[in-house]
Amino acid sequence: MRRVAILGAGMVPFGKYPGKTLSEIAWPAVKAAIEDSNIPKKTIEAAYCGTALGGMMSGQRILKTLGITGLPIINIENACSSSSTAFREAWIAVAAGVYDVVVVIGVEKLTKFGGGTLPLEKEDFEVAHGLVMPALYAMRARRYMHEFGLTEDHLAKVSVKARNHGKHNPDAQLREPTTVEEVNRSRPVADPLKLFHCCPSGDGAAAVLICAEDVASKYGGVPINVVGSEINSGKYMTGFRDMTSPEITVRGAAQLYEEAGIGPEDIDLAEVHDAFSIAELLYYEALGFCPRGEAGRLIDEGETSVGGRIPVNPSGGLLAKGHPIGATGVAQIVEIVRQLRGQCGDRQVEDAKVGLTHCTGGGVSGFDHGVCSIHLFSR
Amino acid sequence: MRRVAILGAGMVPFGKYPGKTLSEIAWPAVKAAIEDSNIPKKTIEAAYCGTALGGMMSGQRILKTLGITGLPIINIENACSSSSTAFREAWIAVAAGVYDVVVVIGVEKLTKFGGGTLPLEKEDFEVAHGLVMPALYAMRARRYMHEFGLTEDHLAKVSVKARNHGKHNPDAQLREPTTVEEVNRSRPVADPLKLFHCCPSGDGAAAVLICAEDVASKYGGVPINVVGSEINSGKYMTGFRDMTSPEITVRGAAQLYEEAGIGPEDIDLAEVHDAFSIAELLYYEALGFCPRGEAGRLIDEGETSVGGRIPVNPSGGLLAKGHPIGATGVAQIVEIVRQLRGQCGDRQVEDAKVGLTHCTGGGVSGFDHGVCSIHLFSR
């Protein structure tokens, strides 16, 4: 297996673009990634496109707009992990020597559904019983509060941090700062989660250009190395399980750290899947950023803010940057690339050398049939 | 890259199963492939699931039913080529040494849409203008008839052959033989195509178990070797193009033959993408089974029937076996596996050693943003 590097990264500001087609949303992100890479468009040998709900042949439709045709195009779906899975597939193909230069796209247009419910599968047991995402994470929050004395203010502080980071990110959907009081006063969604504990719905796209490390030197620039990649799905477990410890992330992180020879103490920053404020707190522990039960202390003490010990979601994360499902995985990688290059201005993590992206997704429950993909990068 | 072999193959009879969930349709195919392989279920390290319209996390939902959890599961969409693309991705990952044993699934439940129009993307130029598949292939048929003197009887003979093969395939959706007269009398769909020139709509699933060749010997059985894999998308071309020569297949076949060191003359049988009778005829030429303009002669002289020089679609093909979009690519491979093993009874191609599968797909037009995946297998 060859070593793989990222040479270009681009995205469009996440937001609501009901008047644009999927291709119109995505092509500027792809163009930006290509231009950023300094690689001639014709050098691209294959494309991987992650989207959950973009419809048939999303990658083909997007690339056609840019006149990129004739090459292998593979569309990947894995719910919220769609484009992080696409990135992993592209990484495998380049590492294996099948292609030298590949573009990876993440895209979603959620306004296509008119702001209503997404087309979930009613044959899914959890969907049929109403156990949709906010309900599930609300239960996890309630349980964690019971077990470890977490308060609603702790939850709110995650959203406040997200907005504080997001205000410095021109690509973030929500750039207005907020306060603990405002979060607590926002309308209830699923107790104890309020509106501001939940990531916004929206549209967006992101893209990266990856290539074999030995090819990277040809094009100049600062290649960002892909140090490791892990993906897995949830284990079906009968009987009691600890809903405050996301098994799928715990296992994925352990596998990745072992395979990469890098531990959580080596990581300078992380983009994690904070679809809900409680989620980010659970992932602090699952990714090894703190011991069990101490996530509340981490947010209290500002350890995960830019300037803290281990900044999490300097981009604003899903809570502020937004979460157009299929776009999120690659957008996380775009942020890590920019951070490791030192291009992030007021949200820059000082001297960042190693970054992690963490993306989960699930039909609904994120338990039995969820997916979790984690990647490590270095400069 | 390691050599890869298929150890197990299974499918369910294609048909209409409105009362079954996607998982209920698919799990028996996966179970059959695993049992056929003689590989313990726990040995499977990853899963690739091809589906065009199965909805989020199709692979996860299916495998959960069988208690196969915790492993990487990747869902792939490429329209009618969804599961042939999934097969290719799995092949890359095994060849690269990322996994030793992988299951590949193809699945679709078209009755979910109540027999009405499939959810095509209205932002697609061709869709918006009504250039849906039957219309497109009707124009190709008309042009080919004009250029090469093909008659409606020639077209009908493709459908007759398909049914003659399908009647011997217990997994085929349409098993009643038909006649040229009956095909010609069936109701018009898009002139000159009649109903019997078009593949039926339906549900179905198929699965194969692949593994590294050096692992295969551990499990016994007759491994079928994956000799080559090619995938590409259509080239955007301005100005006139020859609509009777499918560029994407011509180019893919040429690439594959060169990379595998195998020519059309070495192929004992092929499963090709006969979504419409005219399609099969065009692909005879594109795949090099006969010179340009001679497809009509091939079908006239029975060269592509079982017993002929180069049997095409001994399974019945899409026209008789059916075409549950995402299931088709892997189902084609299942047929080739069974043929190369000599398990096909009355539709057996004698002494078959080398088989080809050919799967196309397209947002709609199959031109600019279509996809074509071709695979070669040997015993």
Determine the oligomeric state from the structure.
homodimer
Number of domains of chain A: 2
SSE topology string of chain A: EHEHEHEHHHHEEEHEHEHHHHEE
Largest sheet of chain A: 9 strands, mixed
What is the CATH class designation of the largest domain in chain A?
Alpha Beta
Distance linking N and C termini of chain A: 19 Å
Helical content band of chain A: 25-40%
Mean pLDDT over all positions of chain A: 94
Q: Which architecture of the largest domain in chain A does the CATH hierarchy give at level 2?
A: 3-Layer(aba) Sandwich
Rg of chain A computed from alpha carbons, rounded to a whole number of angstroms: 19 Å
Major sheet strand order of chain A: 3-2-4-7-1-8-11-10-9
What CATH calls the topology of the largest domain in chain A is Peroxisomal Thiolase, Chain A, domain 1
User: Please, what is the CATH homologous superfamily of the largest domain in chain A?
Assistant: Thiolase/Chalcone synthase
The largest interface is: A-B, 53 and 53 residues
Number of strand segments of chain A: 11
Strand content of chain A: 15-25%
Structural class by SSE content of chain A: alpha/beta
Shape of chain A: globular
SS summary, helix count of chain A: 13
User: What are the segments of chain A in which pLDDT stays under 50 over at least 5 consecutive residues?
Assistant: none
Task: Please characterize this protein's 3D structure.
The structure is a homodimer of 379-residue chains. With 379 residues, chain A is α/β, with parallel strands linked by helices. The first copy, chain A, is 35% helix and 19% strand. Chain A has helices at residues 22-37, 58-65, 82-95, 125-128, 133-148, 152-166, 180-185, 213-216, 247-260, 277-286, 295-300, 317-321, 328-341; strands spanning 4-11, 46-50, 73-77, 101-109, 188-190, 193-194, 203-212, 224-233, 269-271, 354-362, 370-378. In chain A, strands 3-2-4-7-1-8-11-10-9 form a 9-stranded mixed beta sheet, sandwiched between helices. Chain A has a two-stranded antiparallel ribbon with strand order 5-6. In chain A, strand 10 and strand 11 form a beta hairpin. The model of chain A has no long low-confidence stretch (mean pLDDT 94). Chains A and B meet through helix 2, strand 3, helix 3 and strand 8 of A and helix 2, strand 3, helix 3 and strand 8 of B. Strand 3 (73-77) of chain A pairs antiparallel with strand 3 (73-77) of chain B.
